[in-house]
Amino acid sequence: MPLFFIANAEALILPRPFNNKITAGYVFGDSTVDPGNNNYVLTLFRSNFPPYGMDFRGQTPTGRFTNGKLSTDLVVSYIGIKEYLPPYLDPNLSIEEMMSGVSFASAGTGLDPLTAQISSVISLPRQLGYFKEYKKRVESAIGKKRMEAIIKEAVYLVSCGTNDFVVNYFTLPMRRNNYTASAYQQFVLQNLKQVLQDLWDEGARRIAVTGLPPMGCLPAVITLNSESAILERGCIEKFSRAGMEYNQMLQNELNSMQGRLVHLGAKITYIDIFTPLIDMIQGLGKHDFDEVSHGCCGSGFLEAGFLCNPKSFVCSDASKYVFFDSIHPTEKTYTKLFMASRPAVDLMIRN
What's the pTM value of the predicted model, to 2 decimals? Predict the structure, then answer.
């Protein structure tokens, strides 16, 4: 039996909250939401090898930078669309599988065009180009009217920006020579506004945007910026503060967009990942984990991507860790982030 029939059969029995009419899910962004597009890109930013995917179905390393599912997999499963969101660039995707949604995201990318260049990955404008190509492919299979109906009733998620600050602004000199931190935040936000405008022009109406995480708490950031990386594993304030300030600006922008476009059917919402993540690391939520400041893979201090590989030491139970590698959350953390975002998702999918 072809795989998409199985996938569709699963999708049909997933219970749908509020009997929503959501047709598909589309995702744009970075490694937090890339299910494996980078497997098809010439870049070092890949994770299609063990120990990644060690808790995924069949222990398969899919290209997701974690031990299991991403939050976006949980979102589409919760909405009742399908169990996993596949990468658009997978050449084996059937048109049926594509029609209910794909992720265009690429690990290592950012909203600043320079960020994608540094990592040789898919920029946000390129991801939008793929979305336009996707629409043409679906249209040629089912006709323009049906394609437009799918697009209109779909949900869209954008999760991006961490690499702009962690990989680009705070690590390399180019942007720091030209921008103060607050000017750079504005620059990144302007680029995001363009992405949202382009999505709107392509027919997107239900759009969620995740804010930045507490970037100073990422194990790799602690390791590279701490006075004594082994002994002092506290979060680096400068990084997290930049994320908080950006998130405030982002929220204001999204509220303003929603206000302007609500009469046209807009549902534009902000998803806060900063608060639940900081709670898992520093607040009451930290009691759910044994380890909050280093990853499950290798030493947990620096390993990510190709440095976290089949030869790496791996913890025996990833669910005891907030982070799987030195940058990316475990499936348990992604599940908690999804649970925290559910009110925002509910708001977006209610008719």
Answer: 0.94
